[in-house]
Design goal:
The structure holds two protein chains of two kinds. By secondary structure, chain A is an alpha+beta fold. Chain A folds into two domains: 4-127, no CATH class; 141-272, no CATH class. Chain A is 18% helix and 31% strand. Chain A is built from five helices and 16 strands. Chain A has helices at 66-72, 178-187, 216-232, 236-249, 283-288, and strands spanning 4-6, 10-14, 18-22, 35-42, 46-53, 56-60, 82-86, 91-97, 113-122, 141-142, 152-156, 162-166, 169-172, 193-196, 201-207, 258-265. Chain B is built from seven helices and 14 strands. Classes of the chains: A alpha+beta, B alpha+beta. Chains A and B meet through strand 4, strand 5, strand 6, strand 11 and strand 12 of A and helix 5 and helix 6 of B.
Chain lengths: 296, 334
């Protein structure tokens, strides 16, 4: 299937247990979040979609229709360049300056940088990275897709709900996610993050010292197996992404780093419910509008 | 290592493209142009040999660059592509920069007698490199990739840069090896304030132009590379073979596994309020470590590097985007 941006109207949970229908091009009333990519010009490849983490850069052709949509909505003075986000439900978002955005009056805050829904991602961004892996027989594996700037970042709250945070804002998911939280808790002795990417895959950060007794052996076994698999299949990018993650989360010492551990796909938990944070403090809109890329 | 000894004039330049930016007209005049403006400073005398060679390739003249090693380079249109051409070496690029119709305000291209930390009384240009801490790199405008400088710079230059730009940033290296950078005007050491008033009028005007863009920066002389040569490596590719160190990193995680503690059920959760105490304390600590990226979401985790926006080229690029809104890729930029 070719990769494209569809015109699907989406339903976004908002306060007071209500949903609002949002069409492509309209302001997005949920938290600005998801995998982070940029639309940039490359002399060798024209306009591309870019994933970047410090010195690591990968480009691919943008999904069909994305650049046109960004340009027609006035992104970056009509050039269409700049950053986008893709949520766990494949909603493609960007921020457009209110000065250039014709629907700014529909936004909760009508000045600054307004989060806008562009459409749903259909097909895969073909980065040649294991961002949409298929592990039919596995309960656990090492996450070796993008290990930075990738996926929605969630935590687990005191009352066993998923909570999305940015600055001092903390927004609950509109739904319950018992299965997902149970699986997460198996591999984290204390609290941490979980990440959900645009294909619905979930991974967690596992510091060695926090692997619960009884699971440590399993994690070690999985890690050994993954390394053998990566070595024998020449998975250099996968190894590099994991190595960098270990080094960065270990503050320079990979042996103390957090292992990105894949714990499953959203379809395996809670009847496939996709977590959706609900903005319950309108101050968020004001603060998020101050930053072109922030708010997630 | 750059092997210009093997290069002949007119050969393709296969190394990183950078340098002091100069322009030449069909009649052989050479000038330095003020950031994207119309004001220009004529270089007197012009490096004639290089100009003649450039005009062989570009009859109507155009831009060329001189690297920190004195290599003169230009880009020549070749169908839809641009080819990078080596024009030869300039050993003695020097002279005065002369404003149109105001020779009395000329400035030296290559000021001398400066001490590290002195204000730079000439144009801010040269090969552009960047650093954070002890990591140095050259950023490719073409591929958007960072090409590491594995051996760094001489210690005195590194220390000078770190002293004036604690958070890192970019700097320039001129064809004769002088290293200069831009520092914020405030706070200004007393010595610098005195020097500012003594700067040539043209230089003060250039600084004022930057100030007009709300970027109050002063050019400062850091020191000279002397004979030191900056070596640049290819950028890391995700699919490059892993180094022995990277392989060892992957091994080391498993080797350390095994330090475990009893499960703490209460600690499986993140507190609603970060200061709510007891059962969540442990969890909060973990959350902070785990989510270090939250404070710096643009860069991800703690290995973040700042978005560097401290060089006139950034501002020019921004202006170009604002003007045409179409194509920010500078085909002849450093």
């Amino acid at each position: 299937m070719s990769t494209q941006i569809s015109d699907k109207t989406i339903s976004v949970p908002i306060a007071d247990e209500r949903d609002v229908n949002i069409e492509p091009g309209q302001p997005y009333p949920g938290p600005y979040r998801g995998s982070q990519y940029s639309i940039v010009d490359s002399r060798n490849h024209g306009t591309v979609i870019e994933w970047k983490y410090n010195d690591l850069v990968v480009h691919v052709k943008p999904p069909s229709g994305l650049l046109d949509r960004l340009q027609s909505l006035g992104k970056s003075r009509g050039s269409g360049r700049g950053s986008i986000r893709i949520t766990a439900d494949r909603e493609v978002l960007t921020k457009i300056n209110a000065d250039a955005y014709r629907y700014s009056h529909q936004a909760p805050v009508s000045s600054g940088w307004i989060p806008v829904y562009l459409g749903k991602l259909e097909g895969d961004l073909d980065f040649d990275i294991e961002n949409d892996p298929s592990f039919p027989d596995r309960d656990l594996w090492v996450w070796s897709g993008f290990t930075f700037n990738h996926g929605e970042r969630w935590s687990v709250s005191n009352d066993d709900r998923l909570i999305w945070t940015w600055q001092d804002y903390r927004f609950y998911s509109a739904f319950e996610h018992r299965d997902l939280i149970n699986k997460y808790a198996k591999y984290r002795r204390i609290a941490g993050r979980l990440y959900i990417n645009e294909y619905g895959h979930v991974y967690v950060n596992v510091p060695q010292e926090e692997v619960p007794p009884g699971e440590a052996e399993m994690v070690e076994q999985v890690y050994d197996e993954w390394r053998r698999h990566a070595n024998s299949n020449g998975k250099r990018a996968a190894k590099r992404l994991v190595e960098r993650r270990l080094k960065v989360t270990g503050d320079g010492d990979p042996s103390k780093g957090h292992l990105p551990l894949y714990i499953g796909h959203l379809s395996e938990f809670d009847d496939g419910t996709v977590p959706k944070p609900v903005v319950t403090d309108e101050g968020y809109y004001v603060d998020a509008s101050r930053e072109e890329a922030g708010g997630y | 290592m750059e092997g210009r000894d093997d290069l002949s004039v007119g050969d393709e330049w296969g190394y990183h493209y950078r340098g002091l930016s100069l322009q030449t007209s069909p009649n052989g005049e050479v000038w330095w142009q003020l950031y994207q403006g119309t004001d220009r400073l004529r270089l007197n005398p012009a490096p004639e040999k290089i100009v003649d060679r450039l005009l062989d390739h570009k009859r109507i003249g155009g831009r060329f660059h001189v690297t920190e090693r004195g290599d003169a380079l230009t880009r020549v249109e070749n169908g839809e592509e641009y080819e990078q051409i080596y024009l030869g070496k300039i050993d003695d690029l020097d002279g005065e920069l002369v404003p149109d119709g105001a020779e009395e305000y000329s400035i030296d291209l290559q000021p001398d007698g400066l001490e590290p930390g002195d204000l730079w009384p000439s144009i801010y240009d040269g090969s552009r490199y960047s650093f954070v801490g002890d990591r140095f790199w050259w950023h490719s405008g073409q591929s958007h990739k960072r090409h590491p400088v594995p051996d760094g710079l001489p210690t005195d230059i590194e220390q000078g840069l770190q002293r004036y730009k604690r958070d890192g940033g970019s700097f320039r290296v001129l064809p004769w090896g002088d290293v200069i950078t831009l520092v914020p005007i405030h706070p200004t050491p007393e010595k610098v304030e005195e020097q500012f008033n003594e700067l040539p009028r043209v230089v003060r005007n250039i600084i004022k132009l930057r100030k007009d863009r709300d970027v109050e920066m002063l050019p400062v002389y850091i020191g000279s590379l002397d004979d030191y040569q900056i070596e640049v490596n290819d950028p890391t590719s995700l699919t490059d073979k892993l180094s022995a160190e990277e392989e060892e990193s992957l091994n080391s995680w498993a080797q350390n596994l095994g330090r475990t503690e009893a499960r703490s059920t209460n600690a499986h959760k993140v507190g609603k309020d970060t200061d709510s105490g007891d059962s969540t304390k442990e969890g909060i600590e973990s959350e902070v470590g785990d989510g270090a990226d939250e404070k710096h979401p643009e860069q991800g985790e703690s290995e973040r590097l700042p978005e560097l926006d401290d060089d006139p080229v950034n501002w020019i690029m921004r202006d170009m985007k604002e003007v045409d809104g179409q194509n920010p890729t500078r085909r002849d930029s450093t």
